[in-house]
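OP here, attaching both records as promised.
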Amino acid sequence: MEQWGLPDLPHEVVYNILSRLPVKSLCRFKSISKPWLTLITDPHFVKSYLHQSMKSNTNHKLIVAPHYNWAQSSSQSSYSMDYQAPDPTLAELEMPWKSGVVEICGSFNGVLLLDIAYALGYDSINDDFKVVGFVTRTAARDVLSMPPFISDGPCTVHVFSSKLSSWKSIGDFDYPCCLCGPGSVLNGAPHWFAHGITDTGECCFRIVCFDVMEEKFKDVPTPIYEVESNLFKVGVLDGCLCAVDIRRPKSHFDVWMMKEYGVKESWTKLFVVPNVPGVLFYKYCALLCFTKDGGVVLRLELEASRPIKRKKSEESLKLAIYNPKQKTKRIRMPQDWMGFDVALYVESLVSPPRCNSTRRHC
């Protein structure tokens, strides 16, 4: 077809070839001709490309946002990392801003949310990316906060629709618990570990999700532990909800997976992440993704079990690949980082509707 600049190739062949190319190449190819621009930006092609990437586990990378010592640096960059590479390295990303703190709140269907005060969701029925925000009412003023804490006072939930380009209030956050972290997105819904106090004064621990279609908070069954756990971290691995059980004494982490969503009995212990006796133990562990050889990428917070002289950056957060059949592989980070946020994302052609103005409906 002459309009494609490839007279011997039919449209279907060109479509198939383009769907297998990297995102950066496709973005450059938009300028070749109007037909190529039309094809690459076509909603059906965009969705097909994303579906193929998700199914084949290609175009998956980590985004890393460092925390600097502000006395040394007044600006921040974000980086992309191919965690499947034999020797993962950081590649700086071009961001729409040149300074300020970058906080990673979530990723789903090729879209990243970068702001500490919100959680990301996706309404698949209406093809609408939504953002959940919490506003705490204080005596002085209303404060945007994430997550809500019981001691913070009354908290109102607000939802932003990218399709309507508007905010609306859906009422008070009436759960007797506080949510930990920005939430892990599964099936379009952010999930949190939550803890609080029951009416009888007992501690309670639960998993809470926000149903973005019904715009309601719901409980999700927790794992059936052999020993009652007082803290765990929720994550997503291979399209399933996962939880890291933090035990006492701090000897190891148990990693659990809910193989059938919503079914308590489907929680299965996948493997155990051991600590290093006498040197370091993990006081925090976040699950990021699986590697092709069966390993799992972890964000670990280390703490010395005995007094040793180390730089602060060496005692804080680490990125590692743990494989039950092999040794744990540490991914080195720059020494001037005081810490970092990290999340899995999929390179895609997805672009949410542009928000020229935002209207607030209260």
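Record two, same layout:
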Amino acid sequence: MIKQLDPADVWLTREGPHSTIPEDEFFDAVETGLDKIEEDRQLRVRLKYQSQQSQISTVSSLHSPNAETEDEIPQLSEDFGTGAQAKSHKLWPEIDRICTEQLTQARQGVGEDGNGWQLFADEGEMKMYRREEEVDGMVIDPLKSCHVVKGVTAREMCHYFFDPAYRNDWETTLEDVQIVDNVAPDTLVFLQTYKRIWPASQRDALFWSHMRRITDNLDAGANDVWIVCNHSNQNEEYPPANQGKCVRIYLTVILVCQTYLPPGKDSKTATRDDLTCKITYCSTVNPGGWAPATVLRAIYKKEYPKFLKRFTGYVVDQCKAKPIMY
């Protein structure tokens, strides 16, 4: 327990260069906060599921079995995922360059050429690696995760990762998400605010997000390949960093998804049982602020595997009763 302080000294129990909280207590407090957020999320999911089941029962009694699924297929233009509508935006050169760089890095192996990747989670098909890196004493360890999920396509996985309509369902620490620049249907700029978890300061992140279909044919055997790339942006037209109560997070993230079908199957004949989605998730995050390095690494080690399992499980649940989207 943290000792009682004079009210004037309460700031000493918060994240900062003068914080008096021991690192183990800092970790325990953040871990408790994250566990409570996860419990609340699970309750929301159960209540939402019960509501959806009730609605499905009502609809099915009024309509034919296929009626409710038809309008669940996103109606998007043919050039969605090509960047065609975003190319006139001033951010496009950066978006195109970062996406290309991140895809190249995501395709590279781990544990080769002494590149420093360390396996820290190995759970069935899911493997997670990190490299320990710091900038000015702040942990920015790059993360690379490899996973295989059955029953969904690459586009479906990326669709639920990109579209803000679903983000609160799987990103547990999210408090608010705003679209500050609607660049194109496949390219958005977000300002996300995260829930404060005592004693850490509240965080926000400003980043562009771009969803793209990859057509370079470098992924042998893949039926199709889609990516979502997120990257922090400091455009002067957008809300500035560290001006209010929030500490700004700086991030670069890419989700690479590949659909694989068994021999003899194609996108017209495959069923959900035939679908295999190979996932590569890479991220580099500078959390800002003054959180202790040992605490950050301990939290990442626990939370990253939970995040990837939660997100992929959510997509499988969302897609299992819907038409396949390629």
